[in-house]
Amino acid sequence: MRQIDLKIIILGALGVGKTSILHRYIHNIFYEDYRCTLGANIQQKGISVNGQAVRLQVWDTGAQERFRSMVSLFYRGLDGCILTFDLTDQDTFRELDSWRQSILEQSQAADADLPFIVLGNKADVKDRQVSRAEAEAWCNERNLTYFEVSAKESINVEKAFTAVASYALCWHKEKFVSNLTDSIKLKEDNKGQKTCCA
Ligand SMILES: Nc1nc2c(ncn2[C@@H]2O[C@H](COP(=O)(O)OP(=O)(O)OP(=O)(O)O)[C@@H](O)[C@H]2O)c(=O)[nH]1
Ligand SMILES: [Mg+2]
């Protein structure tokens, strides 16, 4: 069976743990020291989603202000998005809306239904500033799936990626079918024109 490439992006405020979540998922490692991401990097992993071979390509971007304008260059061809905040930092939760809006504004109309999931990271820390109820309410209002994760203690990371991969695969297939239908329609229109002109 043909392997399908899925492009996912992980977004969120500075230091919320985007790179750590990704490293936990791809390499099963965790670093205590903070190595701020400069620009962007891509990690990939071959997985099976409901029996379909998939290559999950995850784009990880640094949240520093100087990289923000660059991030939107990576939105093209996305199949899914992971929005991340830090459960121990209320400000990073408030920033979710602007990250989500930046994607919605830049995407084409056809991408309006792009699948998003939301991760509240650092669930291992006792001293949290965002309650589960508050985060769930925000996600429910927008019909987004929510996971509390910890890159450090490897809580729910695998589960979250399995979910986003499965949503992204559905979306990718729908997009493929609708592109196919459009191109068939286009061919039929062309045919029609030829007959008409002949
Ligand atoms: N306690 C705890 N610390 C974490 C967790 N995930 C990440 N960290 C720490 O948070 C800091 C920032 O993590 P990064 O993964 O570099 O954050 P980032 O979102 O990639 O940051 P930028 O690339 O600068 O946007 C590091 O010191 C990590 O060790 C977690 O689940 N629990
Ligand atoms: Mg990073």
UniProtKB/TrEMBL annotation:
Chief location of this protein within or outside the cell: membrane
Membrane topology: Lipid-anchor
Alphabetical list of InterPro entries matching this protein: P-loop_NTPase, Small_GTP-bd, Small_GTPase
GO BP term, pick one: phagosome-lysosome fusion
SUPFAM superfamilies from the UniProt entry: P-loop containing nucleoside triphosphate hydrolases
GO molecular function: GTP binding; GTPase activity
SMART domains in the record: RAB, RAN, RAS, RHO
Keyword entries, A-Z: GTP-binding, Lipoprotein, Nucleotide-binding, Prenylation, Protein transport, Transport
GO (cellular component) term, any one: phagocytic vesicle membrane
Pfam family, one: Ras
Subcellular location: Cytoplasmic vesicle, Phagosome membrane
Family of this protein: Belongs to the small GTPase superfamily. Rab family.
Role summary: Controls vesicular trafficking from endosomes to the trans-Golgi network (TGN). Acts as a negative regulator of TLR9 signaling and can suppress TLR9-triggered TNFA, IL6, and IFNB production in macrophages by promoting TLR9 lysosomal degradation. Also negatively regulates TLR4 signaling in macrophages by promoting lysosomal degradation of TLR4. Promotes megakaryocytic differentiation by increasing NF-kappa-B-dependent IL6 production and subsequently enhancing the association of STAT3 with GATA1. Not involved in the regulation of the EGF- and EGFR degradation pathway.
Protein name: Ras-related protein Rab-7b
Source organism (scientific name): Paramormyrops kingsleyae
Source taxonomy: Eukaryota, Metazoa, Chordata, Craniata, Vertebrata
